[in-house]
């Protein structure tokens, strides 16, 4: 590609932790210039969320996962001089991204209503726990609690009454990450709309809204049937057999998506009679008779090793897979081939990164600079964008406005 799709777009990122930074990193990978405004002396909270740390640095791995491709500018927005610097930087930006509490930036004159008069083409994206209005609007929201409030944890985990039964959160901050991706999508849509209208917009994204939205088929299962879905462990509510099974030496994921695949599974497993049994001949029947079928398959799948099943089922065109730990993931030949782990130069030497999965014309879209150290680009950005002199920066630093 001669240039990345968002080249020429400039984003002022006042967000912290994960949802906002994940959005901003996505925009940076796609070519936008992202200026990350951080609190002097402390910066993004996740810088301190370790161990583990990048070897030879004080940067937490958590911070590194969501901040590549950005410039870090340390400005104290609690001071009038700092607020003025942010407003000046914003004049040459297309987007402001923030995840303060509702009304949290109004005190500093950095809320949308305060800024839109002077910059009517501003795209202003606010990420909060519960949105800009409603009875919960003033409450803080965190991924874990939103997974609970938004219903995900009622669907995740072993059924009540079984060993290990009870609600379980997803192993990564699922709601934060999805919110970041929705935010990036919304910002790009707003940029496109601005080409026609010439005006900006205020994007209101709430973690709770996103969590409810991505309940997907489970939400529709409830809305269409009136029956509240329950936890099924690793099983699927609408497809059978589609779950993990114990093998002779480990576990296997069997993901039968249609009747033809079930027939091929039965041929491979030597249980052809199940494919024609009226209780199991169609997916609808298999869902109805789930418990009976699983009781028949469990001892059968336990007779062979995982590797044997994987080879045989793959050859038969039956979707299946192992359950890898993260070392196995990054050692997987397909993961290696796709370049999903790469390295960027960093003051500590090198930082490993997980690649952006988007490819244009076969080219991966990854920002070329590592997550910045706190205030790494303060002087450069203020001098290049605002025309400040080295002496100006020195004076502001002595006053505690920048770092």
Automatic annotation (TrEMBL):
Domain of life (superkingdom): Bacteria
SUPFAM superfamilies per the UniProt record, alphabetical: CoA-transferase family III (CaiB/BaiF)
The record's InterPro entries line, in alphabetical order, gives:
CoA-transferase_III_domain (IPR050483), CoA-Trfase_fam_III (IPR003673), CoA-Trfase_III_dom3_sf (IPR044855), CoA-Trfase_III_dom_1_sf (IPR023606)
- Per the UniProt entry, the signal peptide is none
Q: Name one GO molecular function term.
A: transferase activity
Sorted keywords for this record are: Transferase
Q: Where are the transmembrane segments?
A: none
Which protein, by its recorded name, is this?
CoA transferase
The beginning of the lineage is: Bacteria, Pseudomonadati, Pseudomonadota, Gammaproteobacteria, Oceanospirillales
């Amino acid at each position: 590609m001669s240039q990345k799709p968002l080249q020429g777009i400039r984003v002022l990122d006042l967000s912290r932790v994960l949802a906002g930074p994940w959005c901003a990193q996505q925009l940076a990978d796609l070519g936008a210039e992202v200026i990350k405004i951080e609190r002097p002396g402390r910066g993004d909270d996740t810088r301190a969320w370790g161990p583990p740390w990048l070897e030879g640095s004080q940067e937490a791995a958590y911070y590194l996962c969501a901040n590549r491709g950005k410039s870090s500018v340390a400005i104290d927005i609690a001071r009038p001089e700092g607020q003025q610097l942010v407003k000046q930087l914003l004049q040459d930006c297309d987007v402001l991204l923030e995840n303060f509490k509702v009304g949290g930036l109004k005190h500093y004159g950095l809320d949308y209503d305060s800024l839109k008069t002077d910059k009517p083409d501003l795209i202003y994206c606010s990420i909060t726990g519960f949105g800009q209005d409603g009875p919960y609007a003033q409450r803080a929201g965190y991924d874990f609690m939103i997974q609970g409030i938004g219903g995900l944890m009622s669907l995740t985990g072993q059924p009540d009454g079984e060993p290990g039964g009870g609600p379980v959160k997803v192993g990564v901050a699922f709601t934060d990450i999805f919110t970041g991706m929705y935010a990036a999508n919304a910002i790009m849509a707003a940029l496109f709309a601005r080409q026609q209208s010439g005006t900006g917009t205020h994007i209101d994204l709430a973690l709770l809204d996103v969590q409810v939205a991505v309940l997907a088929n489970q939400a529709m299962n409830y809305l269409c049937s009136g029956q509240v879905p329950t936890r099924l462990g690793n099983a699927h509510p609408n497809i059978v057999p589609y779950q993990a099974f114990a093998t002779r030496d480990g576990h296997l994921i069997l993901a039968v998506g249609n009747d033809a695949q079930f027939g091929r599974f039965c041929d491979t497993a030597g249980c052809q009679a199940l494919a024609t049994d009226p209780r199991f001949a169609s997916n609808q029947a298999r869902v109805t008779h789930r418990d009976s079928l699983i009781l028949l398959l469990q001892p059968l799948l336990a007779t062979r090793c995982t590797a044997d099943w994987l080879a045989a089922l793959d050859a038969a065109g039956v979707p299946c897979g192992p359950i890898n730990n993260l070392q196995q993931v990054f050692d997987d030949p397909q993961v290696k081939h796709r370049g999903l782990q790469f390295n960027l130069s960093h003051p500590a030497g090198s930082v490993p990164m997980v690649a952006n999965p988007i490819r244009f014309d076969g080219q991966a879209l990854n920002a070329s600079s590592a997550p910045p150290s706190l205030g790494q680009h303060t002087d450069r950005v203020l001098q290049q964008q605002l025309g400040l002199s080295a002496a100006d920066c020195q004076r502001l630093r002595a006053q505690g406005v920048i770092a």
